Amino acid sequence: MKFKSILITIGLFVSTLPGFAQASGDAGSLPAGDTVKVNALLQQTKEFFSSDTAKAFALSNQAKTMAQSIGFKKGEALALKNTGIVYYFQGMHIEALDFYKQSLQVFLDMKDNSGIANLYSNIGVVYYDRGDDTKALENYLQSLRYSELAGDKFRILIALNNVGGVYFIKPATYDKALEYYEKALKLCEELDKQTELGAISVNIGSIYYERNDHTKALLYFNKALKAYGDTEGSLNAYNALGKVYNKTGQFDLALRNHNAAVSLAEKFNSKMGQVQSRMGLGNVYVKKGDFVTALNQFAKAETTALEIEANHELKDLYQEMAKAFSQTANYKKAFEYQSFYSAITAKIYNSETDKKLGTLQFDFDLQKKQGEINLLTKDKALSDQKLKRQQLMKTAATVGLVLVLLIALLIYRNYRIKVKTHRIVDKQKGEIEGLLLNILPEEVAKELQTTGKSQPRYFESVSVMFTDFKGFTAIADKMQPQDLVEELSTCFVVFDEIMEKYNLEKIKTIGDAYMCAGGIPTPDENHVENMIRAGIEMRNYALRHNQKRMDAGLVPWEMRIGIHVGPIVAGVVGKRKYAYDIWGSTVNIASRMESNGEPGKINVSSSVYELVKDRFACSYRGKINAKNIGDIDMYFLEGRVGHPKEEIAQVITMGEQRGVVSGE
Q1: 459-657 sits in which CATH class?
Q2: How far apart are CA 599 and CA 470, in angstroms?
Q3: In the CATH hierarchy, which top-level class contains the domain 1-157?
Q4: pTM for this entry
Q5: pLDDT at 367 over 70
Q6: Fewer beta carbons within 10 angstroms: which end of the chain, N or C?
Q7: Are the C-beta atoms of residues 63 and 45 closer than 8 Å to each other?
């Protein structure tokens, strides 16, 4: 899983409240005592951002009311921002944006460039967390612009880091991201800002991690851990170290670092931190082959990620969960999470995103360049008019040439991305269709893909077979769970192959019972004979398998088989987790044929006997009482007509002599 850039936002991670209002122009004519009270309330609000949201809301609202009553504009703006921060920590992004924008408007009215830069940065963080990279970059560039106008180096380094974070999303712009990060790091060291130094060091190390330069990655991640100290930010460094150790196969170190990150995330109530830490743990367990523990960690991460709408994390999470479920042979879940992955990928990577990102960056650079030209023009007011015209023409020509080159590059890059996206979508479509066919009959799967639903169908004649192993519960109690599942899987894989050979439909397995049907979903006039031949092969395989078990000194698994034919209704059950199933009295009677049979024999109903008596010899057992149904004529299948009865019975006799099959 790819790293996500760590963003820095004044007000979320850095305190700017103490004494701030007194230094502002609008506080000079206000009562000093009142502004001090507002400042105190703002500082108290910060202390409860994530620990006691109700108290934080009450304090920020009290600060806003008091600031408005005395006309303290900066206090009002900071109180609105604090309310937005509390909502942000709760994952309530819509409410956070609402209060951020109210605060921004107050700062704009005041022409406070530092405050404006601060709010644009906070707004950008929200859009970044929601996966809207275009709006995130737009706000970060605005923050950078106003930070430079204010001459505020601290806010400049924050904006540089956050712009780098957007460029870090795609490998094609890693160089651009590194350029912004290194500028931010230089300012950070100059200003001796340890928390921000930790965040930027993690970001730079992340680029080296993605480029497989693990030595440099570890260097920067350890630098970040040292800078963070015992603060919330250190969970990012721990997660980063865990990923490197996982990638290099040092699993104990990887688990140690990710668990340290989980503890810190829970301590500081960082929901995004909890998501990323548990994803890291899950990835380590996947590489170790412990998919059950991995899926447990992924599920916890998914719950929190959905709560805070962390789309980038959900995309990576769904992909990993689909792979993990596939590894555990849970193809239904694998298909479900592969579908979630495809949907959220399409949402994030809109085909116009790259074009918009490039346009915004170009507009910003152009505005900045024009501002520099205007300053030079003002300083050289005494230069002659001809020189100025030549300079403007030269600048326009250069800008025009650069614009043409950028447009050409953007068109080519978008073309490459579209080609790559189509390949990914085609591959995913094939995988999804393969998983769907593994769950449903081909005819039903196509109907679902075409119409979005499958209508139940009535079939006049369908053969239904049940098999199970006598005394399975007692056998299971004496076996290790892993050995038991492996033994069952070995048998059922063979049964599945027999189903495919005779054009029969596997319906489901319930514990040790195996259920199948013939003549659905496509009618087949030979389905009864095919079912009998399949039953013979399954019975004979079970006898051979038991001989191997006895040779190894193990208890044999004695299989009973029952077959009935009649009308049924078939269709898809459920809305999300599809299952193809059949219903009707035919199913119940087939089940009773199996439960009233004998190990190593094929018990058939009179309906089956009447259809195959000219091809297969059967011995009449008489009327046997079946639970909840009554007396039923039952027959044991003996052999094909025209061949010795011993043809089928011989295998049974041999098994009985060896102790494979015993009577009821």
Answers
A1: alpha beta
A2: 7
A3: mainly alpha
A4: 0.43
A5: no
A6: C
A7: yes
